[in-house]
């Protein structure tokens, strides 16, 4: 099956087990009370994908960390608002723990009342919009795309189109994903169907 057809149902899955938490909890991170369907779980894919890649299916608000034998870890994510979600192929070009955040000039121009106050940046920490960890998405010939897969301290933003293009997970889940994903990992943000 061609990867282009991937979004048209290939990301459907069957749960391998009940929603058993896959995470160890960091005492510095709030313990978010998430609905059971927002907990990460190991699933079986209905198509073969290369293991150890990230695939984001915007229709399911799902991030898949692919594993051998048609398995994957599925995380619930928030994605880019209409007009800001960017489908494409990327790779992890940088990783940061408790990343520093500065809004892009485009963000400040779009929403100056919201972002201009942060033009000089926000140090890493629980109040930083990038949360506990960030994977920086790059493309050949373009470099840093300013798209991230990052944490959030606001679980109400999961399973919604809320960001400026990034995908977000709650902090304990992004720590789990971050620890699994090496540099140069292939990342596919699939088109919105």
From TrEMBL:
<keyword id="KW-0378">Hydrolase</keyword>
<dbReference type="Pfam" id="PF03734">
    <property type="entry name" value="YkuD"/>
</dbReference>
<keyword id="KW-0328">Glycosyltransferase</keyword>
<feature type="domain" description="L,D-TPase catalytic">
    <location>
        <begin position="52"/>
        <end position="190"/>
    </location>
</feature>
<keyword id="KW-0614">Plasmid</keyword>
<comment type="similarity">
    <text>Belongs to the YkuD family.</text>
</comment>
<keyword id="KW-0573">Peptidoglycan synthesis</keyword>
<dbReference type="InterPro" id="IPR050979">
    <property type="entry name" value="LD-transpeptidase"/>
</dbReference>
<dbReference type="GO" id="GO:0071555">
    <property type="term" value="P:cell wall organization"/>
</dbReference>
<feature type="signal peptide">
    <location>
        <begin position="1"/>
        <end position="24"/>
    </location>
</feature>
<keyword id="KW-0133">Cell shape</keyword>
<dbReference type="InterPro" id="IPR005490">
    <property type="entry name" value="LD_TPept_cat_dom"/>
</dbReference>
<dbReference type="GO" id="GO:0008360">
    <property type="term" value="P:regulation of cell shape"/>
</dbReference>
<feature type="active site" description="Proton donor/acceptor">
    <location>
        <position position="150"/>
    </location>
</feature>
<comment type="pathway">
    <text>Cell wall biogenesis; peptidoglycan biosynthesis.</text>
</comment>
<dbReference type="GO" id="GO:0005576">
    <property type="term" value="C:extracellular region"/>
</dbReference>
<dbReference type="GO" id="GO:0018104">
    <property type="term" value="P:peptidoglycan-protein cross-linking"/>
</dbReference>
<feature type="active site" description="Nucleophile">
    <location>
        <position position="166"/>
    </location>
</feature>
<dbReference type="GO" id="GO:0071972">
    <property type="term" value="F:peptidoglycan L,D-transpeptidase activity"/>
</dbReference>
<protein>
    <submittedName>
        <fullName>L,D-transpeptidase</fullName>
    </submittedName>
</protein>
<keyword id="KW-0732">Signal</keyword>
<dbReference type="InterPro" id="IPR038063">
    <property type="entry name" value="Transpep_catalytic_dom"/>
</dbReference>
<keyword id="KW-0808">Transferase</keyword>
<keyword id="KW-0961">Cell wall biogenesis/degradation</keyword>
<dbReference type="GO" id="GO:0016757">
    <property type="term" value="F:glycosyltransferase activity"/>
</dbReference>
């Amino acid at each position: 099956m061609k990867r282009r057809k991937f979004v048209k149902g290939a990301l459907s899955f069957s749960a391998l087990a009940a929603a058993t938490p896959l995470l160890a909890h960091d005492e510095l991170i709030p313990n978010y009370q998430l609905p059971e369907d927002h907990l990460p779980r190991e699933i079986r894919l209905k198509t073969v994908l290369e293991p150890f890649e990230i695939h984001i299916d915007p229709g399911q608000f799902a991030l898949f960390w692919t594993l051998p034998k048609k398995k994957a870890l599925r995380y619930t994510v928030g994605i880019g608002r209409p007009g800001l979600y960017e489908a494409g192929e990327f790779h992890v070009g940088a990783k940061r723990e408790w990343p520093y955040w500065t809004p892009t000039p485009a963000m400040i121009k779009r929403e100056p009342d919201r972002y201009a106050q942060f033009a000089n940046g926000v140090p890493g920490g629980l109040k930083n919009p990038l949360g506990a960890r960030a994977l920086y998405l790059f493309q050949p010939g373009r470099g840093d795309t300013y798209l991230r897969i990052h944490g959030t301290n606001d679980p109400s933003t999961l399973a919604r189109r809320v960001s400026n293009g990034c995908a977000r997970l709650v902090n304990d889940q992004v720590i789990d994903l971050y620890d699994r994903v090496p540099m140069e990992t292939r990342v596919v943000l699939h088109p919105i169907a």
